[in-house]
Amino acid sequence: MNDNSKVLVGLLAGLAAGAALGLLFAPEKGSETRDKLSQSLKDLGDSIKDKAADEINNLAGLKDKVVSSVKNKLRQTEEEFADDVEHA
């Protein structure tokens, strides 16, 4: 499990524990507590979507770097091969 997954799992576990404790010790009416919990879950969902979008962008950048590196290596190999053929 990579570091980002561990952070996400920890975040979800903390949210669940906080929500459970909040429900147990809430001084408010149940409907108000449910509304707050609903909003918290919506915020968490938005946060997860943002994190996923960031990770997708990171992966896209990594893919571009890898493709560029492979193309450069291929170009170097072609040039070396052409030089070898020329001097053979």
How far the N terminus sits from the C terminus, by CA atoms, comes to 51 Å
> Helix proportion of residues, in percent?
over 70%
Rg of Cα set: 26 Å
Query: What is the mean pLDDT?
Result: 84
Structural class: mainly alpha
Protein name: Gas vesicle protein
Pfam families: YtxH
Organism: Pedobacter metabolipauper
Could you please describe the fold and organization of this structure?
InterPro entries: Desiccation-related_membrane (IPR052928), YtxH (IPR024623). This is Gas vesicle protein. The protein is mainly alpha-helical and 88 residues long. The protein has one domain (3-87). 92% of the residues lie in helices and 0% in strands. The protein contains two helices and no strands. The protein has helices spanning 3-25, 30-87. The model has no long low-confidence stretch (mean pLDDT 84).
List descriptors:
single chain, 88 residues, mainly alpha, 2 helices, 0% strand
What topology emerges from the helices and strands here?
Blueprint: H1 3-25, H2 30-87
Please provide a brief summary of the model:
InterPro entries: Desiccation-related_membrane (IPR052928), YtxH (IPR024623). With 88 residues, the chain is an all-alpha fold.
